[in-house]
Amino acid sequence: MKDVFIHKTAQVEDGARIGKGSMIWDFCKIRVGAKLGKNCNLGQNVYVAPNVKIGNNVKIQNNVSVYEGVVLKDDVFCGPSCVFTNVKNPRSAVNRKDNYGKTTVNKGATIGANATIVCDISIGEHAVIGAGAVVTKNVKKFAIVAGNPARQIGWACRCGESLKDLKCHRCKSEYKLVRGYLRPA
Q1: Sequence-ordered list of residues with C-beta below 8 angstroms from that of 78, at least 6 positions apart, any chain
Q2: What CA–CA distance (Å, rounded) separates 26 from 178?
Q3: Which of 18, 43, 94, 163 is least surrounded, with the fewest CB atoms within 10 Å of its CB?
Q4: Confidence of residue 6 (pLDDT cuts 50, 70, 90)
């Protein structure tokens, strides 16, 4: 694939599509039908299941498996060893391949190291999932969640900083709350 870096130990199956400028590192496996956007960076030992859609400029750190039913939109960051599930009630003896749950991680969201994302949820744009969190329900745009189960503990700016009084000390952006949802001012 032209304009793409694929480490010699990585396996990219025929029928997988990799966007220009993407980098796929040691021991990754990208399955048939997977679609990676432009400028993605997949760290060591990342698995991307068949038919998974990954947007542009997505960074997936080491030891992450992105299973069928998961969609990662543009600018998503997945920390080391974060976990996605795609079946709510798995059983070894019961085939549930026709019943995969859907999980959408929206534009600019960050998932911390070792966080677990249970299927059938949506993570809002620019949300921040704390390291080790167990996310069992939808996460609002700009929300910061942490804990087990994950609960909202604050709000994040588009640039990733925690907001104080709905203002960002780094980029100087301001926000307002409208019916429990954060919006740029």
Answers
A1: 58, 59, 60, 61, 64, 66, 72, 105, 111
A2: 45
A3: 94
A4: very high
The amino acid sitting at 180 is: G
Residues 74 and 58: beta-carbon distance below 8 Å = yes
**Rounded percentage of the chain residues whose pLDDT exceeds 90:** 97
The closest alpha carbon to 15, from 49, 42, 41, 45, belongs to: 49
What is the b/e burial string over 10-23, where b = at least 16 CB atoms within 10 angstroms of the residue's CB?
bebeeebebbeebb
For 80-131, write each residue's pLDDT tens digit.
Answer: 999 999 999 999 999 988 889 999 999 999 999 999 999 999 999 999 999 9
The whole-chain average pLDDT of the chain stands at 97
Name the percent of the chain in helix, strand, coil, to the closest 5: 0, 35, 60
Could you give the CA distance from residue 141 to residue 138 in angstroms, rounded to a whole number? 10
Among candidate residues 53, 57, 77, the one with its CA nearest the CA of residue 66:
53
- Greatest distance between any 2 Cα atoms in the chain: 54
Average pLDDT over residues 3-30: 98
